[in-house]
Design a protein that fits this description.
- The complex is a heterodimer of chains A (377) and B (126).
- By secondary structure, chain A is of the alpha+beta class.
- Chain A folds into 3 domains: 2-55 and 144-235, Probable tRNA modification gtpase trme, domain 1 (Gyrase A, domain 2), CATH 3.30.1360; 58-140, Alpha-Beta Plaits (2-Layer Sandwich); 241-355, Aminomethyltransferase beta-barrel domains (Elongation Factor Tu (Ef-tu), domain 3, Beta Barrel).
- In chain A, 21% of the residues lie in helices and 32% in strands.
- In chain A, the strands form 4 sheets. A 6-stranded mixed beta sheet of chain A has the order 11-12-13-10-4-14, sandwiched between helices.
- Chain A starts with 7 loop residues before the first strand and ends with a helix.
- With 126 residues, chain B is an alpha+beta fold.
- Chain B has a single domain (3-124), classed as RNA polymerase II/Efflux pump adaptor protein, barrel-sandwich hybrid domain (OB fold (Dihydrolipoamide Acetyltransferase, E2P)).
- Chain B has 3 helices and 9 strands, in the order βββαβββββαβα.
- Chain B has helices at 26-32, 86-89, 114-124, and strands at 3-6, 11-16, 19-24, 35-39, 46-47, 52-58, 62-66, 71-76, 98-102.
- Chain B has a 6-stranded antiparallel beta sheet with strand order 1-2-3-9-8-5.
- The chains are: A alpha+beta (377), B alpha+beta (126).
- Chain A binds chain B through residues 2, 22, 33-34, 37-40, 228, 232, 293-295, 297, 316-317, 324, 346, and chain B through 33-34, 36-37, 55, 57, 59-60, 62, 81-82, 88, 126.
């Protein structure tokens, strides 16, 4: 671990060391890939609950009287559909319709917070600043904002012990809450496809909140979870990850994110996207389930009857579905669920089938946790 | 129970006359994390000392398994295919991988004994 000194540390770094986290370099951040077992952690989140440090994520505030118009033009989802206290999944598009980053946009009333991927934060900031208009103020709050996610069917029980009002939050809604005089934004959301919360304390208060959740989680099965479990969980429910399923050259239609595009409003690259929508993308993002044991990994080629038809973008063993699963881009004739494909792993072909997300049971207690996926299907 | 020897590539070899049983060490399984896939050769296949005889995959990565001696595969722990987690749970026991009928058992002389291996991983983890 001594060689990791040059990496950036979140304010929860000492917690990860205490919990014997296995620290890796994740986009320049020293973060735990797992504590004891990725599979056990991913299982814990589906069955009970887990706590994640996601403080490496970027938080960018957009303020000023033209903040909404500014964001509306740069993104395809319609932010006017949400109100103060709600959040929305959105994309930052380049003029070709490619994805600069995927974002969560929090509506604070007179301003917005965009949560960006750590690896893309500088690129996102540069793009926002380049397109900045009068009456728009852009503020990078990443260095002073931590992010803790508590996810799983027991997450509401854990978080509401610390912040009572969490229990009444609807999916994709948030409140500003206070614990021991310290304020944080708490949203009912997450990257796992189960019930859960994302908590944004000040950078220096992260340990206070972490400890509060950890002690609230005693007896409820709360375990610290690393990036490995986070990846397994998002693949199980079909959430794309930047650098795997989406990048500057993939458009929302290819990425099976058509539901994010709202043609009723005007936005950058709309004309180009409408052409793609009409013609249909040549390739599309799909999920698949291996029919033979084998670990699909990024960039493995995919065949259908000896013809190369695509490539794997993510893959893993799912401890919850008890199957090897993945995501891929395949030619448009091969996107139907049930389509038989073959994945080349070390010069051998392994059978797989295109399948619909999610690959596990998701959602609990009347909250519309699977809205994200339903819209996609 | 024969004597245990260790390779720098973190396989162990248990010597029982000319039959050498092979697996990966406890240190190796911990480094790899959850094992989800093990691919092994068939009985009768030839293996070469220092060459890959199979593949092991964890949630994080795929790694090759190297034969500590040359010879023919005499036995394979085929149950690992459906129970790869045995490598995590019991790397020196149920997690064994193959037994090799060695061409020349003296090849094992280049492997480390347990104290030497412990020193080796001590250095490697720093």
């Amino acid at each position: 671990m001594d060689c990791k000194m040059e990496l950036k540390q979140t304010s929860l770094y000492q917690k990860h060391i205490q919990h014997k986290g296995r620290i890796v370099d994740f986009s320049g951040w020293a973060l735990p890939v797992e504590y004891s077992s990725t599979l056990a952690e991913a299982k814990a989140v589906r069955e009970r609950c887990g706590i994640f440090d996601a403080s490496h994520m970027g938080e960018i505030a957009i303020k000023g009287k033209n903040a909404l118009a500014f964001l509306q033009y740069l993104t395809p989802n319609d932010i006017s559909l949400i109100q103060k206290g709600q959040m929305q999944y959105n994309l930052l598009l380049n003029p070709e319709g490619g994805v600069i980053d995927d974002l969560m946009v929090y509506h604070l009333g007179d301003s917005f917070i965009c949560v960006a991927n750590a690896s893309n934060k500088d690129k996102v900031l540069a793009w926002l600043n380049k397109n900045k208009k009068e009456g728009v103020k852009i503020e990078d709050q990443s260095d002073k904002t931590a992010l803790i996610a508590v996810q799983g069917p027991q997450a509401a029980a854990v978080v509401s012990k610390v912040v009572g009002e969490a229990m009444n939050l609807d999916y994709m809604h948030f409140v500003k809450a206070t614990f021991k005089g310290k304020e944080a934004i708490i949203s009912r959301s997450g990257y796992t496809g189960t019930d859960g919360f994302e908590i944004y304390p000040s950078w220096d208060d992260a340990c206070l909140w972490w400890d509060a959740f950890m002690s609230a989680g005693k007896g409820l099965g709360l375990v610290p979870c690393g990036l490995g479990a986070r990846d397994v969980l998002r693949i199980e429910v079909g959430y794309p990850l930047y650098g795997h399923e989406i990048n500057d050259t993939t458009n929302p239609y290819q990425a099976s994110l058509a539901w994010v595009v709202k043609p009723q409003k005007d936005f950058i690259a709309k004309d180009k996207l409408m052409i793609i929508k009409k013609e249909g993308p040549a390739q599309k993002r799909v999920g698949f389930i291996m029919q033979q044991r084998g670990v699909p990994r990024q960039d493995y080629p995919i065949y259908a009857k000896t013809k190369k038809i695509g490539r794997v973008t993510s893959g893993t063993f799912s401890p919850n579905a008890n199957q090897f699963i993945g995501m891929a881009y395949v030619d448009r004739d091969y996107t139907a669920a049930g389509t038989e494909i073959e994945i080349e792993i070390r010069d051998r072909l392994y059978k797989a089938k295109v399948a619909k997300w999610p690959f596990v049971e998701i959602g609990t207690k009347g909250h519309n946790h699977n809205a994200f996926i339903k819209k996609e299907a | 129970m024969g004597e245990l020897r260790f390779a720098k590539s973190h396989e162990w070899a248990r010597v029982d006359n000319d039959i050498i049983t092979v697996g990966i060490t406890d240190y190796a399984q911990k480094e790899l994390g959850d094992i989800v896939f093990v691919e092994l050769p068939k009985v009768g296949d030839s293996v070469q000392r220092g060459s890959a005889f199979g593949t092991i995959e964890s949630t994080k990565t795929a790694s090759e398994l190297y034969a500590p001696v040359s010879g023919k595969v005499a036995e394979v722990n085929s149950e690992l295919t459906s129970n790869p987690q045995w490598v995590n749970e019991d790397p020196l026991g149920r997690g064994w991988m193959i037994a090799i009928k060695a061409n020349d058992s003296s090849e094992l002389g280049s492997l480390m004994d347990e104290p030497a291996y412990e020193q080796f991983i001590e250095k490697e983890s720093h």
